[in-house]
Amino acid sequence: MKIETLLRTDYKLPGQQSVYHGKVRDVYFLEGDLVAMIATDRISAFDVVLPAGIPYKGQVLNQIAAKQLDATTDIVPNWKIATPDPMVTIGHKCEPFKVEMVIRGYITGSAWRAYEQGERSICGIPLADGLKENQRFDHPIITPTTKADEGHDENISREEIIRTGLVSEEDYTLLEEYTQALFARGSEIAKEKGLILVDTKYEFGKKDGKIYLIDEIHTPDSSRYFYADGFEERFAKGEPQKQLSKEFVRKWLTEQGFMGKEGQEVPPMSEEYCMSVAERYIELYEHVTGETFQRADLTNLADRIERNILNFLNK
To answer: Which of 23, 45, 150, 284 has the smallest number of Cβ neighbours within 10 A?
Structure first.
């Protein structure tokens, strides 16, 4: 029996002003400066939304983010008010900053690929010669990107952000402080669970002149985790790290000859493959939270979500 997934929503909620369908999330803007964010089961890679859904993925992302938001409220206020459904967070509407704060504790992924090709700076930050893949930086580095409405986000330097007025210097300094503190907290939480938080991204917004942390944090879609056990041995031998992140999906696509380039077709995603990806997401949930994942009932998924949102809004 095919497991139900949520690929798109089209609700008409009370007080609804507009809706935004992102790569993975459907965001409903409601009266009273409220936002209902639904984490769907869509999955994207190379900035392309793949055609098949991943069972339980929305639940995994939403519940990890909710727990991690709760664990960081002492560092920076965040947008979350409640999670009335395993796949839904309701929170404050904030005006997002037009940059994403990417922070890296290790050189890997796109940063490593650029380094291998001879680049020795990233977002205006100089990199030493002689680094090895997955090497830890002496201090985590912030490599912001522009926040594109469509297409690819682009790397941008601190100087350029301030010079072009994307973010004021005063606000940007605060964003950097929050980013470093959040990454330190996320790294501590990961370490307790036998994981290394390798890199991640944070998004911030403003409401009533105050900066809030928005969107998701420390999920497998926004972060990369390595297993701590055996990390040093693998690094010393130059072997690939055992990791929990969406990178395994990118790797599978690359092996099938797909990298999101024009003219390339997404390879077929069988039910078995989608379930194997779901199991990886559940594995990450259990590692990051230290809790057993409770699979929600997927019968009439879209109806369940709508009912739970309405129950919350009618309170």
So the answer is: 150
Q: How far apart are CA 303 and CA 178, in angstroms?
A: 38
CA atoms within 13 A on the CB side of 301: 23
pLDDT in tens, 257-306: 999 898 999 999 999 999 999 998 998 899 999 999 999 999 999 999 99
Angle between helices 247-255 and 271-289 (to 10 degrees): 150
Tell me the sheet residues that pair with 104. 141, 199
* The model scores a pTM over 0.90: yes
What is the distance of C-alpha 280 from the center of its chain? Answer: 15
Chain centroid to CA 114: 22
**Sign of the C-alpha dihedral computed for residues 108, 138, 286 and 295 taken in this order:** negative
